Amino acid sequence: MWKLLLTVGCSCFCAIAVMSSDCLAIERRPNGIVVLIDDMGSADLSCFGGTVVKTPHLDRLAEEGLRFRSFYVNAPICSPSRVALTTGQYPHRWRITSYLDNRKANEQRGVAQWLDLKAPVLARELQRGGYATGHFGKWHMGGQRDVADAPLITEYGFEASLTNFEGLGPRVLPLLDAFDGKPARKHDLGSATLGRGTIQWAERSTITGEFVKSAVEFIDRTQATATDGKAARPFYINVWPDDVHSPFFPSQVGRAGKNGNKRALYYEVLAEMDRQLGVLFESVRKDPALRDNTLILVMSDNGHEDGAGSSTPLRGGKTWLYEGGIRSPLIAWAPGMMARDAVGEINADSIFCALDLNRSLYAVTQTLLPIGTTLDGEDLSATLLGHSSKSRSAPIFWRRPPDRPGTIEQDNPDLGVRDGRWKFCMNYDGSEPQLFDLTADVSESRNLVAEHPETAQRLRSLVDAWNSQLPTDAGSVKP
C-alpha cells in the first residue's frame, strides 16, 4: 500500500509518499471536513443498524468509506466533548466538564465560562500552516445564554463562521413551528440579545441546510484559482449541526402524522438532516479534485437523549459514563487516501477516541503540532484510513458531568476508564466499583470485579491517578 511518512524538522513538515498497491500517494495537502452531529445514538443511522428511518446520504458515505464501532468521545455531554475534539486534550484540563450554561450555573458547577484562548486548537495550527478554516454550526464552547464576553469563534483560528445560539459571531437562530395554526416562536436562549454578530431567523428544520450552504460557499471560495495563478488553498471546516438535539421540529411534511410523539419526531429530524448534509457530500463527490483529496469524518458528540434515539445494545445514553453515552458511530470517507480493501468495511476492533482524531488530523494534513503543549491523543491516521487496525495504546479516561449524578434508581459512575478489553467505573470515593469485559459483554450487564480483583485494582489506580492531576468541579460532592 501507499503509506504517508511524516518527517518533522525544525521549521518544516515534509510528506514522503511510499509506493503500495492499494491507494494513491498524497501529492497535495488534503482537505478536511468534520461533521459532528448533536445527541445522536450509536444505533440510529441505518448504516449502523438503525431501522426506524433510512439515512441514504450518510449510508452512501459509509459504503464508500470505513465505519468504526469502537470509537469514543471524551465526555457524555456536549461542551466537553467538543473541547476534546477541538483541542486534542482532555476537556477537564480547561475546566469544561459539562455543557456551558448561563454564568451563574457555570460558576456553581465549577465550569469555565468559555474555552480558554490559550488552549491548543487544531484549526489555529492549520490556519498558521496555510489552510483556509471555517466553522459552520453549533459551537457551545463559549458565548451562550448571558455570556456575551466570550471570544468570537474566529479568535480560535477560524477565518469564517456561522453558528447557532451556542456561540458568538454571525448566527442563524431557529423559529419553532408546530404547524398547528399558532405563530412560530423564537428559540434563542438569550442569544438574540447578546450582539456580537449578525442574526438571521429560519425555520428550525432548515438550519442544518443553512450551515451546509455556508460551508459549500466557503469551499467554493477557497478552491477558486487565485489571480496570481497559485493553486487553491487546502481547507478544513467543521460542519456541526444542532440536529438531532431537541426540541424536535421537522418540516410540516415530516411532522404530519407524528401526533407530537417525541421519538417519531426525532427520527424525522434525523432523516431531514441526512438530506441536508447530502448536499455537502455531493458537492465534494462530484468534483474529482475534491473527491480524491478530501477526508470527511462523521460522528456524534455523545449518546442519544432519553426517549428519542437509540444506542442498543449499549447501556445508557447521553450524560452517562456507560457505553451508550460515550461510544459514537464514526464514518471516515477519503476515496483518494483510503486502503482499497477497507472501503465499505466495518472496523469493530480498533479502540480510539476523539483525542486521537485530533492528533491524527495533524498527521493527515501534514501540520506542525502546537509548540509548548502536549496533546493527549495518539496518531492513528493509518487506522483512520484503513491501512492499519492499530488501537490507541494509552487508556481512555472519563469523568461524569458534575450536574449528572444519576437517578434515584441508578447511580451514574463518577469516573471511568477503558484499557483494551476492560472497562472500569467507580465513584470518587471508590464505591460502586464495576468491571466489564467489553469484548464479551458490550451491554455492560455483568460486573466482574469479584472475578478479576487485580484488574479492577490496576484500573482503579490508573483512573484515580488521572483524575488527581486535573482541576476539580462541583461533581466531587454529590447532592
Question: In a nutshell, what does this entry contain?
Answer:
By secondary structure, the protein is of the alpha/beta class.
Describe the 3D structure:
With 479 residues, the protein is of the alpha/beta class. Helices cover 24% and strands 19% of the residues. The chain is built from twelve helices and 18 strands. The strands form four sheets. Strands 3, 4, 5, 6, 10, 11, 12, 13 and 14 form a nine-stranded mixed β-sheet that branches. Strands 15-16-17-18 form a four-stranded antiparallel β-sheet, with helices on one face.
List the helices and strands and how they pair.
Blueprint: E1 3-8, E2 13-18, E3 31-37, H1 56-63, E4 66-72, H2 78-87, H3 103-109, H4 122-128, E5 132-137, E6 160-162, E7 171-176, E8 185-186, E9 199-203, H5 207-223, E10 235-240, H6 252-255, H7 262-285, H8 288-291, E11 294-300, H9 323-326, E12 327-333, E13 346-347, E14 352-353, H10 354-364, H11 381-384, E15 396-399, E16 415-419, E17 422-426, E18 434-437, H12 453-468
Parallel strand pairs: 3-10, 3-11, 4-13, 4-14, 5-6, 5-10, 7-9
Antiparallel strand pairs: 1-2, 4-12, 7-8, 11-12, 15-16, 16-17, 17-18
Helix pairs in contact: 1-7, 2-10, 5-7
Primary descriptors:
four-stranded antiparallel β-sheet; nine-stranded mixed β-sheet; about 475 residues; globular; alpha/beta
Structural class comes to alpha/beta
How many strand elements?
18
> Distance between termini?
56 Å
Rg, Cα atoms, Å: 22 Å
Quote the beta fraction: 15-25%
Principal-axis shape equals globular
Spans with pLDDT under 50 lasting ≥5 residues?
A: 1-26
Mean pLDDT: 92
In DSSP terms, counting alpha (H) and pi (I) runs of 4 or more, how many helices? Answer: 12
Largest sheet: 9 strands, mixed
H/E element string?
EEEHEHHHEEEEEHEHHHEHEEEHHEEEEH
Q: Fraction of residues in helices?
A: 10-25%
